[in-house]
Each structure stands twice: as structure tokens, then as C-alpha cells.
Amino acid sequence: MLFNNNVILIEKVKRFLLDTKLVEQYTKIRQYIKNRLSLNRIKQIKKDGYLAPPYNIVLETNFNCNQKCSFCYQRKIRLQKEEQLSVEDIRKTFLPMNKKDIYNVLIMGGESFVRQDIFQIFDIFEDLQIPFSITTNGTLLTEEKMKIIIKYKYLKYISFSVHGWREEHDTLVRVPGAFDKVHNVISKLAKKRKGLALSFVLTKNNIHSLKKLIDFAKTLKLDEVMIAIEFATGKYSNKRQKPVDQVIFNNQEEIVYKLEKMKDYANEQGVILNYSSNLMTKKDDFSSYLKGQILTNKKRFNLFCNDLFMLRIDPKGNLVYCLLSRKIFGNVKKTPLIDLINDSKIKLERKKIANSNYFPICERCCRLDNLNV
User: Fold this and answer.
1) pLDDT digits over 330-364, tens only?
2) Which residue in 115, 118, 200, 310 has the fewest CB atoms around it within 10 Å?
3) Which residues contact 365 (CB under 8 A, 6 or more apart)?
4) pTM summary value
5) Element (DSSP H or E) covering residue 278
């Protein structure tokens, strides 16, 4: 109940402060509330590994995608032969759940709109009155599909992956014309519904595009621009060692400086920048993060993994912990999700991670976070 009340409070504060152009104040208040909620939940998980509702659930509908992003962390996974949960499998998974125990279901791929039955999946959550959201590259959304999307009342937001301006985006996703397609889709949808955001992966060379994306977000009154950091391209194993292709930013001082400038610019324009980790919000922390030195200096930080608060279901129905190592803790086709959430094995895993038992693979992960903000 406390969690839900605070979420409602955040939304009320957001509406007021954004209407009065006080973006920076809203960001600080949201960060404070998020940290207090995270701290309370971390205490419980450190004690016994128990994850209390409401739950944030990631539903990976598929891994196949119509783009080949140069920074994609799923590259290795996509080489595997894929099985997918059917619409009926997904319905059976969520039907027994108490809708009040679910804060949000994030539907993602790969690219979810590759699935021909994706709207049947959306219908499940609409019928069960479970809030859901989508992450998409937007290029497969036709006029007809956009007409369908605007009808969903329980669709909280749509996050569009845009990683540069025009040719830069096309180069990163390796699909000519991709930017123009997603730009067109966002421009049209923004006239018909709220709850749209941009999702931007910061690489070594694309930060100069962020200003144009902030301008784009302002023009269309998008909710926010979400920023994550390039990490690796999928060449790692489930043993949680450092990826052989981990991206270390040799130009970290330049990146840190320019991102600070972009924060100021976004505040001036009334656009929210939402970071995947608090480690990006302070210059010294961000510099250590880019260098891959967070774990060696971890006494400075109150670290935690955001996946501690998340349930991730892969296309085969496995409940997995960690988007990278993907350790499996049962399958929803064999065991009800409600029974897997706090199974003894995953509780032990959460407890170990929460008590600072981090791995080399964690040090540059976008899910690593810091409460000392």
C-alpha cells in the first residue's frame, strides 16, 4: 500500500511541477522517493530475500528483431533456437495473479511487434486490467496498428528506441531509413495519446545527438528521454565474469562534461531526462562508472541491483535473474508464477546479491545502481 501511495504521489507531483516548468525540482523529488522506496525494499531482501508486491514484471515476448544494433546485449541469445510462450501460456501465467500485486508489465523483445499475435498479448493485460508498457524500435508500427494501440486504456507508456539523429541512428541500428520510420510513428502517435518516451543508449560517439532528441521531445511533449549506457555486445557467459568486449569509455571526461551540459539544457527546455542508474547523476560517480571502477571503489557507494525488484520472464517462460547472466529459477509453464516469485532458490539469490555479493559482470551494467544520491 505504501508503494502504491508513493507512486500516486509521484504522478501528482509530476503533473504539477511539469505544468509549472519545474523539471529539475520534479526530478529531485522523484529521485528522493525512488531511493526511499528502494531502501525499504532492500532491507527486506537483505534479511531474507523476500520480494514484496507490487511487482514490476518484464515479459520478453521474443528475441528476434528486425534491427541489428551495434551495442545489443542480446546478440549471443539471438543465435539460439527460440521457443516462445503462446498467447494462452501468457494468459495462464497472469490470470491467477492479483492485479493489485502488479505495478507494471513491461513487454519487450527483441522487437515485440515482430510477433504477429502481439495485440492478442496486449488484450490479455487489458482484459485483466493489469497496467503494461512497451519498448519498441517503432519501425513496424503501421497506420492500422497505431489505430489499435491508442484504444488500450491500461497501456501506461510506450518507449521508442532512438539512439541518434537520422543517419547516426540508422548506422547504430544498421537499418537504412529506420530513423525516418520511427520519427514518423512518434510524431503521429503523439497527437493521439500521452505516455510516449524516447529510449537512448549512450555510446562513445552519439552524445551530440542528445540535444536534437531533447528538442524533439519538447516539440511533441513526450514524457521523458530515458538514457542508458552502452555496455557490451553479448560476448559473455552465465559465469558472470567481465565480458570480453566490455565497453570502457576512454573519453569519459568528455562524455561526463557533455552529459552535464545536456542535463542543464533539458531542464531549460522542460524535458525530463531519466537515467537507468543513479551512477549517472553525479560527475565523479559517472566517471568511475564509465571507467569500470565502481566495484573497486564500492565502499564509496551504497550499491544495489535494480533487478532485485524485478521479475523477468524470457520467451521460453523461464523466470530469469539478471538480463546478462540469465540464471534460471523455474518456468511458468511448469510452476505458477506466484509460486516462483519467492521460491527458496531465488530468495537466496536475491539475498546474496543484496548483501553486496557482486560479480565482475556487474561493474558496467545499466542495472547497477547507487542509493547514495
Assistant:
1) 999 999 999 999 999 999 999 999 887 788 888 88
2) 310
3) 231, 305, 324
4) 0.90
5) none
pLDDT one-digit tens code per residue, 181-194: 999 999 999 999 99
User: 370, exposed or middle or buried, with CB in 10 Å at 0-12, 13-18, 19+?
Assistant: buried
Would you give the DSSP letter of residue 52?
P
| CA distance to 59, 67, 91, 280, per residue, from 318 (Å) | 10, 24, 15, 31
User: Which grid coordinates belong to 122?
Assistant: 496486449
Which grid cell sits at 358? Answer: 557482486
What span, in angstroms and rounded, lies between the C-alpha atoms of 147 and 152? Answer: 10
Distances (CA, A) of 327 to 47, 320, 334, 362: 21, 5, 17, 14
Angle at CA of residue 49, ends 46 and 51, nearest 5°: 110
Question: Mean pLDDT, to the nearest integer, of 272-297?
Answer: 84
pLDDT tier for residue 7 given thresholds of 50, 70 and 90: low
Which contiguous run of DSSP H or E holds residue 23? helix 23-48
Q: Which segments of 221-326 does DSSP mark as H helices, in order?
A: 252-269, 283-291
Q: Which three cell numbers stand for residue 200?
A: 537512448
